[in-house]
Design goal:
mainly alpha; elongated
Length: about 110
């Protein structure tokens, strides 16, 4: 989760959606996020016995990130990009709250 946080924050720090800087950073963000989602999905699949809130919301977060990078394109963001990003933030709350309750921080 920290890896994806760091990558997402670095991408957001490149500039406003549609800026030349963010457009230039987009291809690497997409491929790195796809790789993260694949690896994280493998871990989730192998460990599907944690509390259901954790597994359901982590699955949503993985899916939301994959959907976001599947449709995002250079140029100004769309309402669909914004909706996918916002939904991923909501889903992120499940793993975050569950892990924090167990004393796991990232």
């Amino acid at each position: 989760m920290k890896e994806n946080d760091d990558r997402s924050n670095a991408f957001l720090g490149t500039g406003e959606p549609g800026s030349p800087e963010q457009d230039a950073a987009l291809p690497k963000f997409v491929t790195d996020t796809q790789d993260w989602a694949r690896r994280t999905q493998q871990v989730l699949d192998a460990n599907a016995n944690p509390p259901r809130l954790l597994t359901r919301t982590l699955q949503r977060y993985i899916d939301d990130m994959q959907l976001f990078v599947a449709s995002v394109r250079p140029g100004p963001g769309t309402k669909y990009d914004e909706a996918a990003w916002t939904d991923s933030i909501v889903a992120y709350g499940g793993p975050l709250a569950t892990c924090q309750a167990l004393g796991v921080q990232w």
